Input
Amino acid sequence: MFSFEITAQSSDTSARAGVIQTSHGKVETPIFMPVGTLGSVKSISPEELIEIGAQIILGNTYHLYLRPGCDIISRFEGLHRFMHWNRSILTDSGGFQVFSLAKLAKISNDGVTFQSHIDGSKHLLSPEKVIDIQACLGTDIMMCLDQCIQYPASREQCRAALKTTTQWARRCRHSWQSLQNGQNALFGIVQGGMFTDLRRQSAEELTDLDFSGYAVGGLSVGEPVEVMLEMADFTLPQLPQIKPRYIMGVGTPENLIELVALGADMFDCVLPTRNARNGQMFIDHGTINISNSRYKDDTDPLDPECGCYTCRNYSRAYLRHLYLAKELLAYRLNTIHNIHFYINFIKRLRKAILVDAFEAFRQDFYHKRKK
Amino acid sequence: MFSFEITAQSSDTSARAGVIQTSHGKVETPIFMPVGTLGSVKSISPEELIEIGAQIILGNTYHLYLRPGCDIISRFEGLHRFMHWNRSILTDSGGFQVFSLAKLAKISNDGVTFQSHIDGSKHLLSPEKVIDIQACLGTDIMMCLDQCIQYPASREQCRAALKTTTQWARRCRHSWQSLQNGQNALFGIVQGGMFTDLRRQSAEELTDLDFSGYAVGGLSVGEPVEVMLEMADFTLPQLPQIKPRYIMGVGTPENLIELVALGADMFDCVLPTRNARNGQMFIDHGTINISNSRYKDDTDPLDPECGCYTCRNYSRAYLRHLYLAKELLAYRLNTIHNIHFYINFIKRLRKAILVDAFEAFRQDFYHKRKK
Output
């Protein structure tokens, strides 16, 4: 079960609001998906995610395939029950991880062979296998296996990777169709590096394959933010209007608001969770580094206007103390706040779209940042 | 405000049940106090402690004095508000940490000088200062500064430490009386090493000073468990029947049941929390090492009879996966279970005392362990 409906469209930008329906409930777009790579959003519980308002989280095929493995997760009939999360899950295909994390990734006719970053063991991920794994995980939204490349990359490299990505997408789709369970959606991933004509070609080839939704991959890989936005600006309109459009692995609140303006619907990023563990906290006015000595006797919450569990109950001084003492609770309280910030930020942004006040929201956002 | 009432007495052992009243509520004895050294029970929240049924937790004077310091905690009118915990708090005096953790501890007329284990800075803790710090922390039960010694120690060393401990106890009591706020109780700490006559002398000298309660210190410092129990067996009857009696830093569930049989009322120990972080889980039948490969595809909860959040929602396979992947949630879920085990274990033990069935409970406990 999968559907997508657009419920509002901004009149002065390409921003839009919609609703995705999966077997595990509704996902109101634009949406931010917290990253739970290994079957856990680091340090926080499913109940906390629900209190924050998360509707969908991300898992990772590469990581979960290596550890704990499908044989184990299948005993729980999938990732939902294994990790005690009954809302939607999207899993990345592992393409990005195979090329960034694993050793000796080598493309063959079958797919990609590599050595595990954990124990050096040899594995093959093929388009068919990636679909099988995601079916075993029981994820609501599957992603095609794609070939990711480093930045910068030559036109020739990008063209070759794009060719592989399209071939794999076709095989993924074929394999996905043969599942015939109708439970999961499958998204294609646009590649093409920082070359607009290759991006167009990739978008066209994937559109022809008619996926449930489309992702723009290969962004936020080291390129300047202007280039990232330029690529998104070019690529998003190439994708079917009526399908959800997902920008992978991006980004800052500023990135999100600009990408929503360009018509993107879905986002994931490790920024709120990873930075929380490094003491960098997101607020409307920018970021706070909680280890800063200016907060040592500050009795105020992180953000007095924030309604998250952390801000309702703890002070900056306490959070700084926990962080400096390396207390485990620090990572959790910081993560709760940062995810709440991201999800609440996107929720407010969505509300603005619903009343066609997106541009005013954007101006107000930058005004607060300048303070 | 502080009171202690004995509500039931076992007819065939010295076990007893009672109720302590502090300004922050009631504490039903026998009680296990989770350790929250730095103003946080590692990895878990106050709400989780309350759900588990914790009525009192431990803080540490030495640690909180060094970090974040009284100037900061006083801005919150004490530790309760600083750490968002509104039930009772007992703080250890820091005596144990000064002698075990700090560098170059040296006893002078004033108290004990030492260098911080964090940054090497020099400090003096005197009996008066330890009371001042605990008053600033606003703890419900303060502990006297005592001189701890290593095990084994000579009779002469133990006698000298005992002499200092009594002198300091007198000065602590004097300082505590001058506070005159009636908010906090003060407990004396019996020392005397593993020598019964010194233990008797220490108990007598402290009893003369009339404290709100009495602790037996200097146990579980490396001596065989039989010696620990022998010392407790000898010392507990030397202490006033009508006052709460606290065995510091002990121990395993087996230790706790034996010490309750000897008439002890209060316990603290890092075992459930520290071992949780090392993957060792407590259950009625003994312990489980969650990293064991036998649990890799085990869909059962840690303990099918346990009602804790972890056992209600997660499997052994998931807990093992989180633990091996070093996911932060592992430490939290394990800690919840272990603290729940300890607190629930002592609660069941208390119920048995209330219906004068302690001995039957003890036999049943050992029967389950043998399985």
Chain B touches chain A at residues 38-40, 42-45, 67-68, 71-72, 75-76, 82-84, 296-297, 299, 313-315, 317-318, 320-322, 324-325, 327-329, 331-332 (CB under 8 Å).
